[in-house]
Amino acid sequence: MTGQDLLLGERQDLIRRRLDLSGRVIAAELAQELGVSEDTIRRDLREMAASGLCRRVYGGALRVSPAAGPITERIAAGGERKAALAEAAAALIPPGSAVFLDAGSTNLAIARALSPASGLTVATNAPAIAAALLERGVATIQIGGLIDPRAGGAIGASAMRDAECFRPDVLVLGVCGIDREAGVTAESFEEAEYKRFLAAKSRALLVAVTNEKLSTAAPYSVVPLARVAHAVIEADAEEAEAAALAAAGIETVRAKQPSAHRDLPR
Amino acid sequence: MTGQDLLLGERQDLIRRRLDLSGRVIAAELAQELGVSEDTIRRDLREMAASGLCRRVYGGALRVSPAAGPITERIAAGGERKAALAEAAAALIPPGSAVFLDAGSTNLAIARALSPASGLTVATNAPAIAAALLERGVATIQIGGLIDPRAGGAIGASAMRDAECFRPDVLVLGVCGIDREAGVTAESFEEAEYKRFLAAKSRALLVAVTNEKLSTAAPYSVVPLARVAHAVIEADAEEAEAAALAAAGIETVRAKQPSAHRDLPR
DNA sequence: CGCATTGTCGCCCGATCATGCATGATCTGG
DNA sequence: CCAGATCATGCATGATCGGGCGACAATGCG
């Protein structure tokens, strides 16, 4: 039906997009839809699986990251380190300001570190963050829209419309990677677009970055480094990385060593 | 019945998520819910146990580390009673429908009882519910706006604007009280207005009501009883109350006894 | 211009896999 | 110790898989 010819690469791109979108593809369906034989699809899938772009299963393929939003997992991982990072980041936010907390597990930690006494108004597109803020008694504005399970928040057109009338003093950007050349980067096109949109409306940008995200670039650029005002990095981040950030004009702060006492209030 | 076909790997992912969430799964339940034979589930469980992903027991399987688990959180959040109520309510929602889950602790329990296999699209104005849905892998639309801390969700003008274009098949209304005369009632004016707005756009209304809300009226009326299609009440709700609901033309369903829920051996 | 090479793709076939059912063993609660 | 539920195993069946083969087009080379 839809059977126009696709260049070889296009087909795989399309499969990949389809995978990102729904988390699963079925070989037979793809074959019919793209007007090629099932064998060809299987070859594509095999190849993609070999390069780690998908997980092959009987009948089709799944997204690499376990079906559920990876968000859930990321929350569990690296609790203490992120808590330390979050505390340092929270301290950088001036009391009384209007803040946008982007989706992301690190930002969730920041939400948990915010104090209701600081008189903040916080907007977020991530339900987990909104729930945490609410629990802590922080004034919360929720950004609506269809939720992207990978990002763990709303990032579509309607989310932008919702966020339009909010001009935060501080935007706490969730980052997938930060790199001298590429700047702040994101995993998906839509996500990057959304972040860019937010950044354009914000007075100052703050990022909290775990070690593994330093000097790594995800596929899509959001903003150049120069646009970032503050960065929080881990206590044991490499000095060279810190210097690179500072050289770009970013005020860089190290978190405290997490090994210490302190548990976050439950 | 409930679900569409799942790719082989997806089923195991789903079981794993279910395990993480509640700490235990029951073979027979999974089989019915996922629309496969019990043998298949047992094979999955056996396989997962072999790779150390779960612990096999008679009747089902348990999480490997019985120590930590949101099971405690679940009990704290609503107790067994609400879980039973929620299960009955979830069973009333036709697979594939578009649902609006209003804010409220009972509705949060319902969110936790929804199966991702049922192909639902769920909108909600409560961040806690959105987060729970996301965790369970259900397609989620978040309604934005300023969050009212008492209601636990967005209920202002912008929330209405956000919800405007969504016309749910089923609206699961959070109720503060339900009474023959006053109908469904809410605690605050704004909340009532928001619920009324939602009700006007929905095909069918469903409410899940704990005992203490039966025959009590909060200050503000939302909709008359006649507008409610289904009501779920607790197993031990008074018969007179049930009769009153039924007399108003509401299809009334009793939840199962929470204690009657079979326990797995340790 | 002709010819060889390369790569994509469709088709076919034996192998493999997932699943449901039947059977007999095993477990559990009373 | 019994009745009923649950389990492991083997088998049948249908779908899917992977590799091999040949067709066909694009490209490179003489």
Automatic annotation (TrEMBL), chains A, B:
Q: What keywords tag this UniProt record?
A: DNA-binding, Repressor, Transcription, Transcription regulation
Task: Show the InterPro entries listed in the entry.
Answer: Carb_Metab_HTH_regulators, DeoR-like_C, DeoR_HTH, NagB/RpiA_transferase-like, Tscrpt_reg_HTH_DeoR_CS, WH-like_DNA-bd_sf, WH_DNA-bd_sf
Q: Which SUPFAM superfamilies match?
A: NagB/RpiA/CoA transferase-like, Winged helix' DNA-binding domain
Tell me the domain of life: Bacteria
Every copy of the HTH deoR-type domain together lies at 8-63
- Molecular function via GO: DNA binding
Entry protein name: DeoR/GlpR family DNA-binding transcription regulator
